[in-house]
Amino acid sequence: MTRGSRVLTVMYVAVALWLAFCTVRTWGTVPAWTSVAMAAASLAPVLGVVRETVIADERRAVAVLREREGRRAAWRDAAAAALARAEVEMACCERWWTSCATEHDPACAHRTSWGTTA
């Protein structure tokens, strides 16, 4: 829960308690419908507390999903980098085949030396 949510929750609880106190103090001295209306109004801040709690839970869930997606993205980036490296390595061999074996990178791992026997 964020600091702002905590402040709102405290304010909601304070308003609910104040309205409940006023309802109890005025019961029997004012018309019944006003006391019932004030009792109903004291339940509205409770809904605010529930709302702030739900929002905090949703924020936590979104944070967890973002963190998981970040890990998946990192894995995908690593896989894409490995695939790109493999394609670059194979590009050297592709040049070798398409140039009738005249061009081959000296650093290519697939290069075979024709002058020496192993």
What does this structure look like?
This protein is mainly α. The protein has a domain of 69 residues. 77% of the residues lie in helices and 0% in strands. It contains two helices and no strands. The radius of gyration is 35 Å and the shape is rod-shaped. Keywords: Membrane, Transmembrane, Transmembrane helix.
Count of strand segments = 0
Helix amount: over 70%
Q: What count of helical segments does DSSP give?
A: 2
Q: What's the order of the H and E elements?
A: HH
Radius of gyration: 35 Å
Transmembrane segments: 32-50
Keywords: Membrane, Transmembrane, Transmembrane helix
Which descriptors apply to this entry?
77% helix, membrane, 0% strand, 118 residues, mainly alpha, single chain, 2 helices, transmembrane helix
Quick description:
The chain has 118 residues and is mostly helical. Helices cover 77% and strands 0% of the residues.
Secondary-structure blueprint of this entry?
Layout: H1 3-26, H2 32-98
